[in-house]
Design a protein that fits this description.
Shape: elongated
Number of domains: 3
Strand content: 5-15%
Strand order of the largest sheet: 4-3-6-5
Helix content: 40-55%
Radius of gyration: 28 Å
Number of helices: 11
């Protein structure tokens, strides 16, 4: 049952990336994404390949992943057409592998159609309430920073800021952290743990509006830090974590279902050569 369980959990985790069965039945929701000698390849086929990739799919950006999956589908269509012409569909090995695949597909769809209706809004809200109740507020700070390579440059910029130059403007022009420089050095709110220690120690000593009196050295270079605001963290809104909670609740329901099936079934396991697995003898209590 490991493969059906993995497939089911993956389906829940991928959410909208995996095409629901109901959508696959509607041609308007399942467009043609390629034609090979007139034979159509549908989006649902690409999404099934995505599902089969599992966690590896999340490591690749969509603009890289989609062309690879589309090309694979095209190659499969080209080669399979030759296989059909050679009557390979009647080969015993093909029939056996099709039956194995059918078992997995039936298990996958059974799990999805059994579990999804049980992931109700009431269950999601109850889980969110439970998790929110366990949330421990932490100190957060909203800060800006300017990152440069040398202490000399950092001191020169700090002097300008203390003389009245605009912190955000200098960050946009001079900071080596190009991601935050576009926002005037704004890093948003963060807790102490998410930053490297020297940076966090300096930032959390500041009051709102305060600026470090000297450059702060880290492995990235030299920072000038300005605290914009301080607050206690709060639980993220349900809208931000709903998908995670759905996955969590779904996983628990799947595991409960699988364990229930195992408890009622007679399961016999054998070694890879087909011989019985010897039961380990329990050590006698002294």
């Amino acid at each position: 049952m490991k493969k059906p369980l993995r497939i089911a959990l993956l389906g829940l985790a991928l959410g909208t990336l995996v095409l629901p069965a109901t959508a696959a039945e509607k041609k308007s929701d399942d467009p043609v994404v390629a034609r090979v000698n007139g034979a159509k390849i549908y989006r649902s086929q690409i999404l099934r390949e995505l599902q089969a990739m599992g966690a590896h799919a999340a490591q690749l950006p969509p603009n890289v992943l989609y062309p690879k999956l589309l090309n694979k589908a095209i190659v499969t269509k080209l080669v399979s057409s030759k296989g059909y012409a050679a009557k390979m569909q009647k080969d015993p090995e093909v029939k056996k592998r099709l039956k194995d695949s059918e078992d997995e597909i039936v298990a996958d769809i059974y799990v999805r159609k059994t579990i999804q209706p049980k992931i109700t809004d009431a269950k999601i809200k109850a889980r969110y309430k439970k998790l929110s109740g366990k949330f421990k507020p932490q100190d957060e700070i909203r800060a800006r920073h300017i990152l440069v390579k040398t202490e000399k440059e950092a001191k020169a910029l700090l002097k300008k800021i203390k003389n009245g130059d605009d912190f955000a403007k200098i960050a946009m022009e001079k900071s080596q952290d190009k991601g935050s420089a576009k926002q005037g050095g704004d890093l948003g709110y963060f807790t102490r743990k998410v930053m490297v220690k020297p940076f966090a120690d300096a930032a959390f000593k500041l009051k709102a509006g305060g600026i470090t009196d000297k450059p702060v050295k880290t492995d990235f270079g030299y920072h000038i830090i300005k605290a914009e605001d301080r607050r206690k963290s709060s639980p993220p809104p349900l809208s931000e974590v709903k998908d995670q909670i759905m996955g969590q609740v779904g996983q628990e329901l799947v595991e409960k279902m699988i364990n229930g099936l195992k408890a009622k079934a007679k399961i016999e396991k054998f070694n890879i050569d087909g011989t019985p697995i010897k039961k380990e003898k329990k050590a006698k209590k002294k």
